[in-house]
Amino acid sequence: MIEAxxxxxxxxxxxxxxxxxxxxxLGCTQPAVSQQMKALESSAGTPLLIRTGREMxxxxxxxxxxxxxxxxLAGLTAAEEExxxxxxxxxxxVRLVSFPSGSSTLVPTALAALRAAHPGTRVSLVExxxxxxxxxxxxxxxxxxxxxxxxxxxxxxxxxxxxxxxADRLVGLVPDGHRLAEAESVGIAELADESxxxxxxxxxxxxxxxxxxxxxxxxxxxxxxDYPAVVGLVGAGLGVAVLPTLAIESVRPRGAxxxxxxxxxxxEIVALTLPDLAQVPAVAATLAELTRAPLNQGPP
Length: 300
Known about the structure:
Blueprint: H1 4-16, H2 19-26, H3 30-44, E1 49-52, E2 55-58, H4 60-87, E3 92-98, H5 100-103, H6 106-117, E4 121-127, H7 132-138, E5 144-149, E6 161-175, E7 185-187, E8 195-198, H8 201-213, E9 219-223, H9 227-235, E10 241-244, H10 245-249, E11 256-262, E12 266-273, H11 281-296
Parallel strand pairs: 3-4, 3-5, 7-11, 8-9
Antiparallel strand pairs: 1-2, 5-12, 6-10, 6-11, 6-12
Helix pairs in contact: 1-2, 1-3, 1-4, 2-3, 6-11
């Protein structure tokens, strides 16, 4: 096998005309140069140099190898510099996928801090709700997934690196002037007869489960993945809703009041990646900033 270090020596011999001169240029000994040239000729399977008087001359095979050596070594140097830049966070790319309320709250805080610390790292963002976002991570379509879950399923994320970010409590949303708008805390059963506005499919399932545990099935008149739409519908007096705190943070609830809901329900917000990706410097830095984001933006 032809090695890059042997090509560097061959190029030096071709340029200087002797083993001893090549050794001086490379900062090594003449026997070391001779030994490496023997190893290179053994790998090539043909003589590369012949001695003419006091000088070394390239054979036809040696000339061909030297011609290619410059391009090979230049490409290798460029590759080494690029890898060093990525390892040193002077460059790098991270593909991030997040659910919408995370995109508008945690992600901007984390990416602003990442850019300030490592301006050479580039992050792209697309939105997807779990479980689709987790599937994208496993399928290689992203490097980091911001996701959430209501309770840990058995073995759900055992193959992934899981960085807990925060517990996001669900809160109630009722129209201004609603009979419970000024209440400090509202039992979910007190809303049994209300018209409901539901959010994303996973949150919708969680709402139904919580209400059924309280003894009723919610009458869902409107369902939308768009949290501002949920808030707008509540503000227009068309129903009540239960939303994550992060969703409320990203929307000004005009015409609606936020109330505490009992029993308390939280969703776990996490950042996920694959074990091998967690060792990539740019991915590790992104995970670190996402972990700090809840602290930097204050309590929900």
